[in-house]
Amino acid sequence: MKSVNDLISVLNLKQASENEFIGISKSIGSPNVFGGQVLAQALCAAQKSVASNRILHSLHSYFLEAGDLDLPITYLVNNMRNGGSFSTRRVTAMQGDKTIFILATSFHKKEEGYQHRINFSDTIKQPEELLSWDDILTQFGAFLPQQMKAFLEIERPIEFKPTVIVNPLEKKDLPPFANVWFKLRGDAANLDLALKQQLLTYISDYNILNATLLPNASKANWGNTQMASLDHSMWFFREFDLTDWMLYKTESLNAFGARGFSRGNIYTRNGKLIASVAQEGLMRPLKK
C-alpha cells in the first residue's frame, strides 16, 4: 500500500448478509495479519450497522489468534443495544471456524456538555525538524539490523517521524516514553468522520508497544523479543482533520510476566486531544 486510497480499499468490506462482512488483508512486513487492520475492519463492520447520527466514542478488543494473510476474514456483527442515547455492537472476526478477534464498540448521539483537555508540551519538535522512517532507511540503512531494515523497506500509506531516534546498536536502558508524528500519504481531505475513525484506529496499533521495550533496551529489542498485541482499547473525543500531521504520545507504565502495558494520546498539531489508546502486548524474550 502506497497511499490512503490503498488503505481505504482494504478497509472497505464486502457485505455478505445483513450482519456479515468480508475483508481481505495486506501485509505490513510481519508474517501475520496486522492487528490495526483487523481493528479497523471490525470497526467498519460495526459502523455499517449503526444509524449515522450515532458517533463512535469507544472500542475494546482482544486479539485471540494470529490472522492468516492468505485467508479472507469474516466479520459477524451482533446488535447488542440501541438505547435513547447509546448504541452498542459486538463484532467477531473469523477465519474458517477459528475466532481470531473480538470487538465491542459504543456509539453516542451528539450532545453538548462541559469541556476540558490536557495538552502536550510545546517543546516537542515539529515534524518538519525530524527524520521520517524513509529518511532513516536512506541515511542509516547500511548500519541497521537486518530485521529493522526489512521492516522499514515496506511501502506504507502512512509517514512516521519519531521525535527521538533510538540507536539499536547502543545498548542502553531508556525512559518509557515514545512520541511519533504521523501523516497519511495522498489526499485525506473530505473524508467522513466514520472513515477517519477507522483510519485512526488502524494507525493506533503502530508504535504503541515501542515504549514497553525502552526501559530494558540494554538487553531487549524487536529482534530478540516476541511482540504481539493482546488487547486494544480506544476512546474518541473530537472531530479531526487527517490532512495534517498528528502526534502520537505513548508511555509504558509496566512490564511484567512477559507482558507490557502502554497507553497513548493522539493530538492534532495545535494540541487538540483527539483520542486515547491503551494496549497490553506480549513481550516474550526469545530463547537462544
Protein architecture, described:
The two termini are 34 Å apart. Helix 2 runs antiparallel to helix 5. The chain has helices at 4-11, 35-47, 133-140, 146-152, 193-204, 210-213, and strands at 14-17, 20-23, 54-63, 73-82, 86-95, 98-109, 158-162, 177-184, 225-229, 231-236, 246-256, 259-268, 273-285. The mean pLDDT is 94. A hairpin with a 2-residue loop joins strand 1 (14-17) and strand 2 (20-23). Strands 1, 2, 3, 4, 5, 6, 7, 8, 9, 10, 11, 12 and 13 form a 13-stranded antiparallel sheet that branches. By secondary structure, the protein is α+β, with helices and mostly antiparallel strands. It has a single domain, classed as Acyl-CoA thioesterase, double hotdog domain (Porin, Beta Barrel), CATH 2.40.160.210.
Our count of domains comes out at 1
Could you say which overall geometry the principal axes of the C-alpha atoms support?
A: globular
Q: How many β strands by DSSP?
A: 13
Helix content: 10-25%
Largest sheet: 13 strands, antiparallel
Quote the beta fraction: 35-45%
Identify low-pLDDT runs.
none
CATH superfamily: Acyl-CoA thioesterase, double hotdog domain
Rg, alpha carbons: 19 Å
- Figure out the total of helices: 6
Can you identify the CATH class? Answer: Mainly Beta
In round numbers, the mean pLDDT is 94
Distance between the termini: 34 Å
- CATH topology-level name: Porin
Order of helices and strands: HEEHEEEEHHEEHHEEEEE
Overall CATH architecture: Beta Barrel
Counting helices, strands and paired strands, the structural category is alpha+beta
